[in-house]
Amino acid sequence: MLQWIADGLVIGSIVSLGAIGLTLTFAILRFSNFGHGELLAWGSYLAFSALAVFAALGLTDPAAPHAPVAPFSFGWPLVAALLIAAALTALLALAIDALLFRRLRLQGSITLVIASFGAALAVRNGLLFTYGGIPRYYSQELQIAVPLVPRSVWGGLRITPDQLFVLGLTAVTVVALHWFLTKSTLGRSMRATADNRELARVAGIDPEAMHRAAWILGAVLAAMAGVFAGLTVQLRPTLGLDLLLPLFAAVILGGIGSVWGAVVGGLVVGLAESLAVAWIGAEWRAAAAFVVLTAMLLVRPRGLFGERA
Amino acid sequence: MAALDLAGAVSYAAFFLVFATVFAVAVLGLNLQWGFTGLFNVGVAGFVAVGAYTSALLTTPPIAERLGGFGWPVALGWLAAMLTSGVAGTLVGLLTLRLRDDYLAIVTFGVAVLIQLVALNAQRLTGGPFGVQFIPKPMQAWLGTGTPWTLAYLALAVAVLVLAYLALERLVASPWGRVLRAVREDEAAAASLGKSPFTVKLQAFTLGSMLMGLAGAMQAHFVGYIAPEDFQPILTFQLWAMLIVGGSGNNRGAILGAFVVWGFWAAAGSLLRGFIPQAEQARGAALQVALIGVLIATMLVLRPRGVLGERVAVSRHAASGD
Fold it and tell me: How far is B290 from chain A (nearest CA, A)?
């Protein structure tokens, strides 16, 4: 029993980080961005390319290109690659906004949604074209799952150091985000715009600046989530499409515009997927997010922490 | 030599046109949902799949380890396809039509994912990854295989398309159609006049889904074989591109869009195949799909009404100032 909880929390961490960005764009930009998953995918691949660039520039030792810091499978190169990927993903999000979404903002949310999946299609297949369809990995280092809890206690728990890192860093990020959103001016301005855009404008908050902030924050978190997914599972071009339904389920479960809701929603969806794999079978895991989504819409459409439906 | 090329060209053209016609039927359904009613269905491929599998499973001969296979006549299969996809549309509509617009988008997307999952994994029901084979082709007994049969099927498909078009035009011009447009433009105003927006939206969504299911059945009986990979999100995107390019809110635009975008798709495909070496074909296919995405985005920015936009209906009384 502990095992599927742990596995679910790892998946849930990835979904949570992506869902936070999605819920912010939902609330501040006011449309459901079907391309958000692609930011995760691009984040993961950009980090992959950054690692390759490090190697090409001779910054890393060819014998140990990932400079792993025991017990993890990675070292400073991946951390640096993550930072670069976050910056580049933010640039990508801002570029798509400037080229496409900003021109359509006056036409209503549905047009933006259609545009977003046109963009998603282009971006996802751009990824497929650039990197090919074969799954890739950041490093060939093997990770052995460490038994944290013996099998006699609730089925036991085995977890890899990388997975623990993902859990830990996600928790730190969420706490830092909470501090940012409650204590800093920018964070509070973003929340104000998410809650009531017109009133925030009256108070002197520039909506376009908030749009940019939402894209940047969402993209940075998405890149982190993407790298975590690449680290704990694999890099594949369909990552964005595969995570789209879980991301939306998490956002709707938590309530649109609520960051904590997105976190809780993401963890619940992760646990649901893990449970589905344990009980029904791995091939049905995509259905778990759909079940969570449908149940939420039937019972409480505005989500756990959301406003009106 | 010339005769051989001509026969090949005719065969290719017929094949191309059948696909375009079948897509046009589905796009008419999408146009009813989106163009006339303003409902954003991102799970079109799912409803097409429901129709295709229904007709296939009912009309094929029986196979061990799989349900269905009742050997029904093709026409009944097509009617059943419309029925099941209509039921699916009604269920999805009941769940989401009272909620905000983008929830419908998300749920329909989820429904399509779920349907694909079922098609892939419920092997006893759908044949799993192997799909359904030996789907009977209508009129095969008289015409055999080959170009004459393809042309005959094209005639059948075009007849269905024309019937669907005329029925929809009639419907849209009727009082029901006016309520539809009223609901799309201003739901509160329509409700204040005593119309029931929810009922009308549900009916439109169901009808649109029925057309998508019919298109699925038409495709299944043309190719003779279906598998889960025929109904992936890319199909949804192709149909949406067709509607956006042709002009949503206009049935002729919907049909035009189907032929234009299918032509664009086929042309892009053969161009890329010509330029890209054999080993990289999969990556070339990705480029083809990316182009569709760019097409959708570009049309939305440059000409959102499409090639043939909606015909704006203005009341006779407007100019006279009554």
Answer: 4
**DSSP structure string for A203-257:** TT--HHHHHHHHHHHHHHHHHHHHHHHHHHT-B-TTHHHHHHHHHHHHHHHH-TT
CA of residue A98 relative to chain centroid, distance: 22
Nearest to A245 among B100, B113, B292 (CB): B113
The token pair that represents B81 in the structure block: 């396809």
Amino acid at A184: S
Separation CA B240–CA B288 (nearest Å): 16
Chain A residue with the nearest C-alpha to that of B299: A115
Tens-digit pLDDT profile for residues B135-151: 888 887 777 777 888 88
ipTM here = 0.85
Sign of CA dihedral B65, B67, B72, B78: negative
Give residue A308's Cα distance to chain centre: 25
Burial of B87 (C-beta count, 10 Å sphere; 0-12/13-18/19+): middle
Q: Which residue of A has its CA nearest to B283?
A: A129
Q: Which amino acid is at B160?
A: V
Q: Is A281 left (phi over 0), alpha (psi -120 to 50) or beta?
A: left
What residues are paired with A149 via a beta bridge?
A157
Q: Which domains does chain A have, with CATH numbers?
A: 2-299 (1.10.3470)
CA distance B211 to B213: 5
Query: From residue A196, how far is each of A190, A191, A300, B150 by CA, in Å?
Result: 10, 9, 22, 59
3-state secondary structure of A128: helix
Distance of CA A89 to the CA centre of its chain: 12
Closest to A177 (Cα-Cα) out of A250, A257, A251, A259:
A259
The one-character DSSP state at B249 is T
Q: Decide if B121 contacts B46 (C-beta within 8 A).
A: no
Q: pLDDT per residue over A257-297, tens digit each?
A: 888 999 999 999 999 999 988 888 877 888 889 988 888 88
